[in-house]
Amino acid sequence: MNRTATTTAVIAATFVLLGSYAPVFGTEEAEKPTGSMSIAMLSKYVWRGYELSNDSMVIQPSITASYLGFSVNLWGNLDTDQDADLFGEEGANWNETDLTLSYGGSAGMVSYSAGYIYYGLEGLDDSQEIYGSIGLDTILAPTLTVYRDVDAYPGWYATLGVSHSFQLSENISLDLAGQVGYLSADDADTLAEPDDPGSAYSDFHDGRLSATLTIPITEEISIAPNVTYSFALSDGASDIIKGGSAGGDDNFLFGGITLNVAL
User: Which among 95, 98, 150, 191 would be 20 to 30 A from 24, CA to CA?
Assistant: First the structure.
């Protein structure tokens, strides 16, 4: 799909969905929709173990609207000094726009969500995923999420994550999190085993450890410095990640700061 047409379609769809919330603002307080926006400035863009930027800062804005468990989110990535080897052109460039539609809730100690993601990508085929997630409100808050690509890159990706929040003061908190990911392609044409090109890749893929400090500025605004370490989980994953990453490595330490605003 043409990149300009894709971005326009995604943004238009999002604003139509966001606009559908407007009439309910006159209802009772408990039924009002909520919104939030953020902008992250990071030293590197790493997704599912792959380094998707090369020695350049990335800026990632996001906006979300929610109502009665339903949410719509629009997220993007601006590479401030894009590498031509990655996307075909150099310089500052907006190279990804993602639209996520989801529904979530809880029942007792169990939380759940399900949704759809549209990936608008530059230099690659756009794709679509569906996903489901289940978590437990207990120590370390374990959460299992399973994604299914139903378009350009058919396969499965699953993560098991844990997290814990420490209250450092009345307002400031430190969140520590970790997760492991398992990637399984449907066929070798999508992603092949490094030592067996005729077989589809399937292995424990990437791990991630992160620390985020949340510092409120006002009731609606906070800043969140963060640091993340991403690494391959197996020899096969190491080869795959090196081959698909900008710098040809399989582990990355990166960080930045996020500005969060409640609307």
Answer: 98
